[in-house]
What we know:
- By secondary structure, this protein is of the alpha+beta class.
- The chain folds into four domains: 1-135, Beta Polymerase, domain 2; 136-229, cca-adding enzyme, domain 2; 253-302, no CATH class; 309-362, Orthogonal Bundle (Serum Albumin, Chain A, Domain 1), CATH 1.10.246.80.
- The chain has 17 helices and eleven strands.
- The chain has helices at 2-13, 24-31, 46-52, 101-106, 129-135, 144-150, 153-165, 171-180, 189-200, 205-214, 235-242, 252-264, 272-290, 294-302, 316-323, 330-343, 351-362, and strands spanning 19-22, 37-42, 57-58, 65-70, 73-79, 81-87, 91-97, 116-117, 123-124, 137-138, 168-169.
- A hairpin with a 6-residue loop joins strand 3 (57-58) and strand 4 (65-70).
- Helix 7 crosses helix 10 (205-214) and helix 13 runs antiparallel to helix 14.
- The longest helix is centred in the C-terminal third of the chain and has 19 residues, at 272-290.
- It is elongated and about 85 Å long.
- It starts with a helix and ends with a helix.
- The model has no long low-confidence stretch (mean pLDDT 95).
- The chain binds adenosine-5'-triphosphate and magnesium ion.
- The site of magnesium ion has 4 residues, from strand 2.
Amino acid sequence: MLEVALKLLEEITSRGFKAYIVGGFVRDYILGINSNDIDITTSATPKDIKEIFDDSCLPSEDYGSVTVIMKGIRFEITTFRKEIGYIDNRRPAEVKYIDDLYEDLLRRDFTINTICMDEDGNIVDLLNGQEDLKNGVIKTVGIAKDRFEEDVLRILRAVRFATILDFRLDNEVIDAIKDRRELLSSLSYNRKKEELDKIFGSSYANKGIELLLGLGLDKYLELENLSKVKCTSSLIGVWTVLDVLDKYPFSANERELISAVKEALNYNNLDPYTLYRFGLYANSVAGEINGYDIKNITESYNNLVIQSKKDLDISSQDIMNCLNREPGSYLKEIYGDVERQVLYKRLENNKDRIIEYIISKYR
Ligand code: ATP
Ligand code: MG
């Protein structure tokens, strides 16, 4: 991976431009963490980059950035830039291409995100990022209050990096976050959700939640239930307790899972019918929140007589035949009844037995 990246840098530098790997990849590389996206910063303009890598360029989404795919790895190549003025506490008003790495690093958020690597694999560290990385501390580049006011997303990025890397926030950063936190209400729910997903999905999610609470961000993120979130290993579990389906954007799949977990929370997650109805996933997540042992839930689930309707030794046609009736909503009722009888082992999952039961009760 690194090899491919260095080769790509050389493609650029051999044409007389400057180019470095920067940001997350270098930070994670020094920490011994694998990362899949590589950010490259260069004096070459997007036009230059497109000329060099024409076939491998994706249509660019961000102004001044080109995405190049090489050997299946994604490279985000961004031209050295100066950002002038900010609007909406989020975006620069104007972006100017420049030729100087140092100036480009000054517009970046945190010192640990300014460490670069050149085409020979040498670390280039103009803002002492390595020291902060070694000390496990998140410091802004420049005055923290100003940097958070320019772009309020940086507040959540600070919490995200402190969470994921298990780092601490520098005191100046803590003060500045408390000072600027109201600005979070102007940040789009999409951006908030993206960062919160990374925080809640981290193996240090509990630290992230403590940080958000300690910094008083729950109010500005409209997460009234944040203090109720107990240790849960799943992102969906956290969002279920937060109960913000009406505010934050969720995919159809997330919505479905959250709704199932929310329902399953109201029941005994070791109960066969509950396990059957909501499935292993929703019950495991709900069970963890309800304080059950996940191992018991998995075991109970695996011991269910049937795990889905198709495991039942009877079909709709069988039911209609034995009752001599046309299709109708009564089928659903009978299915529900039979499922329960079988799950609670009051009725054997055997076609003849089930038919006897149905005839005796419904004919
Ligand atoms: P990861 O990719 O692991 O999420 P990253 O640090 O690479 O983390 P990216 O969003 O990929 O983050 O951004 C790449 C680099 O761009 C960052 O390392 C940082 O130097 C700079 N950057 C990103 N977002 C901001 C921002 N909002 N303000 C200032 N600089 C930023
Ligand atoms: Mg990155």
